[in-house]
Write a structure and sequence with these properties.
This protein has 338 residues and is of the alpha/beta class. It is built from 13 helices and seven strands. The protein has helices at 2-30, 90-93, 103-110, 126-139, 166-169, 174-177, 180-184, 186-195, 197-209, 223-246, 270-285, 304-307, 316-333, and strands at residues 46-52, 57-62, 82-88, 114-118, 145-149, 251-256, 290-294. It is elongated and about 85 Å long. It starts with a helix and ends in a 5-residue tail after the last helix. 32% of the residues are buried.
Length: 338
């Protein structure tokens, strides 16, 4: 009887401790997020997206929320300073190639009628950027313009065990299939993550301390992998467009920065072809809101070393060139400069 009693007490103690930890975790996260954190696990539509724990960039959102479209009702005053937000990875964050600049910084120098806030960071992908966008639109006054430059890190999801749109796409990438340990605890892991905020936080901490990315060996992607990778990017970008439109953003620019492949005469890879098809389809679907800035045209092969230091990162000259092209496009196509 004593053994049973001890086991029961241990179980009760463990259960109560878990409740306390979970409650405290939700209380702590309430301050950087919102009240919805208390309903996570009960409302199946709620998602918690953790971008950066060190900066408390955590977003709690309802993916099925009915967003009211405020785009047509905006009263814009052209004479005011135009606020613009930039979302991208290292190529938009800048400070690469021994350069202390970025295209966003150089564009700010060229146009004193615009105020740019850059939310880009190294390694950022659309899974993370949509969370940062949603989080800031909830907390701050919406900008007039958004530049969405999330092109180069789509492949990040190849080694993610739980990428943002996994349930929608119902697809497991080959790289994550190799992780046998993940598969062995897959069901338990999924259940805990769908119920416990504290479990998600602990998982994020472990991933950042022990990323163990070397266990994955990148292989040639299958056509299915490429298609699903683009589909994930599509869903995130369309979410970004819809959320921005509903929050009163006036113009949404899909920015396609140039890379080494754009200086070559080789055949366009399937990934880039699908990517560009989506960009221009989005512009067609939202003609008064979405515009595409494609910087991959009219590039001379002899200038590649002047503008790039590797396959994707721009030199100072490359950042200046991109800033010039983006600013010229803005001057010729934006409502605010007509």
């Amino acid at each position: 009887m004593n053994i049973i009693k001890n086991i029961f007490l241990i179980f009760v103690f463990f259960f109560l401790t878990l409740i306390v930890i979970e409650f405290l975790t939700r209380v702590i996260l309430f301050f950087p997020t919102n009240y919805k954190v208390f309903f996570y696990g009960y409302n199946k539509n709620l998602k918690i997206e953790i971008v950066d724990l060190s900066k408390f960039q955590i977003n709690v959102s309802d993916r099925n929320i009915n967003l009211k479209d405020n785009h047509k009702s905006i009263n814009v005053k052209k004479e005011n300073l135009i606020n613009a937000w930039v979302f991208g990875g290292s190529t938009s964050f800048g400070n690469n190639c021994n350069s202390s600049s970025s295209w966003a910084q150089e564009m700010q120098k060229k146009n004193d009628k615009i105020k740019i806030e850059n939310f880009s960071f190294n390694g950022a992908d659309s899974d993370q950027l949509i969370s940062i966008l949603d989080l800031n639109l909830q907390k701050k006054q919406s900008p007039e313009i958004i530049f969405w430059a999330s092109k180069f890190n789509m492949s990040n999801i190849l080694i993610k065990s739980n990428y943002r749109n996994k349930e929608i796409l119902n697809y497991e990438f080959k790289e994550t299939e190799k992780n046998k340990f993940f598969h062995s605890i897959k069901r338990v892991d999924k259940t805990l993550k769908s119920r416990l905020v504290s479990y998600k936080i602990i998982e994020e901490i472990i991933i950042r301390i022990f990323p163990n990315k070397n266990i994955y060996k990148t292989e040639t992607l299958s056509d299915k992998d490429i298609k699903m990778m683009i589909e994930n990017f599509k869903i995130n970008t369309l979410d970004a467009i819809k959320i921005s439109r509903a929050k009163g953003v006036r113009e949404f620019y899909l920015v396609s920065l140039f890379s080494e492949i754009d200086f070559k005469d080789s055949q366009t890879p399937v990934k880039d072809k699908l990517y560009k098809e989506f960009l221009f389809q989005s512009q067609k679907n939202y003609p008064e809101f979405v515009k595409v800035i494609d910087l991959s045209h009219d590039l001379s092969k002899k200038n590649v070393n002047n503008f790039l230091c590797d396959a994707v990162h721009q030199t100072y000259e490359g950042n200046v060139l991109q800033a010039t092209k983006i600013n010229n496009f803005l001057l010729n196509n934006s409502y605010f400069f007509k």
